[in-house]
Amino acid sequence: MNVKHNWCGALKLVALAVSCSSLPGFSQTTNSFFQFVNSQNERQYTQVPHEVLAFYYPWYGQPPGRDPWHGYDTNKHEIFGAQRYPVKGPYSSHDLSVIDWQIDLAKAHGVTGFIVSCWGSADWEAWNNKTLSLLLDEAEKKNFKIAIHWEIVPGEGQGQIDRAISELSWALKTFGQRKAFLKVDGKPVIFPYNLVMQQVPVVSWPKIIEGVRARGSDLIVMADGYQGHYAYLFDGIHTYSLDGLPDELEKNLTLEKLGDLRAWAARYYQKGVKIARQRSRISCVMVMPGTDQRKAYKFNWQMDRLEGQTYRILWEEAIRANPDWVIITSWNEWPEGTEIEPSLELGDKYLQITGEYANHFLSSTAVSVPPPTELPKFTLGTTNEMDRLLTGQKIGLLMQDRLNDAEFWAAYCGANLQRLNWSDLIDPKFFNASNFPVLLHIANEHYISSVKVTDDVTRSLVRYLHEGGFLVSLPTEPWPLAYDDSRKMAPFCITDKIALGVDNGFEQPPAGTELKFYVNKSALSGLPPTAPFPVNGDLRFRPANRSRVPPTDYYLPLVQLWDSQMHPQGDAAVYIQHKTPPLSPGKSIYVWMRTPETLGSGEFYPSLYQFISTKLKPQ
Question: What is the pLDDT of residue 14?
Answer without folding.
Answer: 38
